[in-house]
Write a structure and sequence with these properties.
13 helices; about 0% strand; Receptor-associated Protein; about 325 residues; single chain
Length: about 325
């Protein structure tokens, strides 16, 4: 075999091995960071009370666990997103997005008044979309991890551990978001809350139907008694079946969702590209009242069509 070919093969093997090692190190570090996120907070504070208060503040809650003085839907969205809440940083990001949106839309349309709409889109619309996206992704992760967490609790109870210890075990062994949520519940129980109160606060923070089912199971067992291990086993099985059904619905409605995205984005992308490439393409016609009303009517029909398609594919369990 040619020496050059052997050299190239060895170089390829070395580069491939280095890339695999780097990917493995990065994935391991990311997983460790997720698992130890709450533990890192615990290392920086002293005592259970300080830990509970700090974890609540990072979720956008007050020191007593209540939502701060904001709009209720916005507070729920901030808490459900799971993002570390820092008012100063978030205000800076919102102002920066508003300035970029205002400047970008004013530059594209050559109309200073469009800066107002661009500022609202960048400073209000985009942050809300980001929060909704993060909350949705976190909800999907919760639905996937919750049956595993319940099985850990069941095995711990069968081994003879008390319920608070089983919940604390989930907080130590599982990654976010379930690990942080159950860890906060374990800290609140150690701080003096009852099991029912701690689990109810998990449901309030997560805003997820499967977590609501788990909270209802704990509430029922606390008030009427019964075999908690058997109830949690049934709960885990039910949540897993609901998750499978959601995946089937998502697969069945994928065509409708793709059609909605394409039909909605195509007109805006086309108009934006035309305005950017050739701002004078429409000439003086764009200023005619009939054209303006026609564009407004088209936009309204697009919104109506999206609402109809959303109702067709939005199936909740």
């Amino acid at each position: 075999m040619d020496a050059n070919a052997v050299f190239l093969v060895l170089v390829f093997a070395a580069v491939f091995a280095a890339a695999q090692a780097l990917i493995g190190l990065l994935s391991t570090a990311a997983q460790k960071r997720l698992v130890n996120r709450r533990l890192k907070v615990a290392e920086k504070v002293d005592g259970i009370s300080a830990l509970v208060v700090e974890l609540r503040k990072q979720r956008g809650l007050s020191a007593t666990g209540e939502r701060s003085g904001r709009l209720r839907w916005l507070s729920d969205l901030i808490v459900a997103s799971g993002l570390p809440y820092d008012p100063r940083k978030w205000t800076t990001y919102v102002l920066g997005a508003a300035v970029i949106g205002a400047g970008g839309l004013a530059f594209m349309t050559r109309n200073p008044l469009a800066a107002i709409a661009g500022g609202l889109i960048g400073g209000v619309g985009i942050p809300i979309m980001v929060l909704k996206f993060m909350a949705g992704r976190r909800a999907n992760a919760l639905g996937f991890q919750l049956p595993q967490a319940l099985e850990i609790i069941v095995r711990s109870l069968e081994a003879g551990h008390p319920v608070p210890t089983a919940i604390a075990l989930v907080g130590r062994e599982m990654s976010d978001p379930v690990g942080s949520e159950f860890g906060m519940a374990a800290d609140e129980i150690a701080y003096g809350a009852t099991l029912e109160q701690a689990v109810e606060r998990i449901a309030e923070r997560c805003q997820h139907p499967d977590v609501d089912l788990f909270a209802a199971t704990i509430r029922l067992q606390e008030r009427t008694g019964g075999n908690l291990t058997g109830l949690l086993k049934l709960n885990a099985s039910t949540i897993r079946e609901r998750h499978k059904m959601r995946l089937k619905i998502k697969a069945a409605s994928s065509e409708g969702r793709a059609s909605a995205m394409i039909l909605t984005s195509a007109p805006f992308l086309a108009v934006g590209a035309i305005m950017l490439i050739s701002p004078k393409f429409y000439g003086d016609v764009i200023n005619e009242p009939a054209v303006k009303w026609g564009l407004i009517g088209t936009f309204i029909w697009i919104v109506i069509g999206n609402l109809i398609m959303r109702r067709m594919i939005d199936m909740r369990l």
